[in-house]
Amino acid sequence: MKTTALAVCALVACVAAAPQFPQQQQQYQQQYQQQARRQQTYSSSSSTPAVNIALTRSSPEQPIVILKQVQDFALPGTYSYSYETENAIQASESGELRNAGTPEEANAVQGSYSWADADGTVYTVNYVADENGFQAQGAHLPVPPPVPEEIQRAIDYARSQPGFREDDDGQYRKEE
After folding, report:
1. Domain limits of the chain?
2. Exposure check for the chain: N or C terminus, fewer CB within 10 A?
3. Membrane-crossing residues (predicted)?
């Protein structure tokens, strides 16, 4: 009786693990192979870019193929990853844990991501995220205007006053 029950459980597990949608899987595999052939064609031609990608899909249900993906996890808190998709999205990031086990423990991350819009313009954002916050840079990102002269004079005056502390974050703290 135990052997029969064990055999039935094993059979149920095999059936559950079997591919549920073989036609869809075959379709995805064919799309991936077609994309790989297109990539070989594009990269072997000198007049076209190394990656020439259709930026829109005829059907939103079609999956976007991941062309490249790398992940590396080393020491606790240290990692890196990158990926590239067929619709011109690329991302990479690496991070580490700084000052582990101390009150100043913080993650430090740097990376970038890019994408192409419908007319083929590529946008790239490079960033750092650490104890100083998230800082992004990109040619398409807005840049704040310069500080007006009157405001700069007021800041300089405040800094010159006795009791001014550069590290004061403006938060109220009851003095003891």
Report:
1. 65-158
2. C
3. none
Token pair, residue 46, equals 């000198």
Residues 145/165, Cβ–Cβ less than 8 Å: no
Report the predicted TM-score, pTM, of the whole model to 2 decimal places.
Answer: 0.52
Write the CA distances from 117 to 93, 120, 172, integer angstroms: 22, 5, 46
Backbone φ, ψ for residue 32 (5° rounding): -65, -45
Q: What is the DSSP string of 37-95?
A: HHHHHHHH-TTS-S-----S-S-TTSPPPEEEEEEEE-STT-EEEEEEETTS-EEEEEE
pLDDT in tens, 142-159: 988 999 999 999 989 988
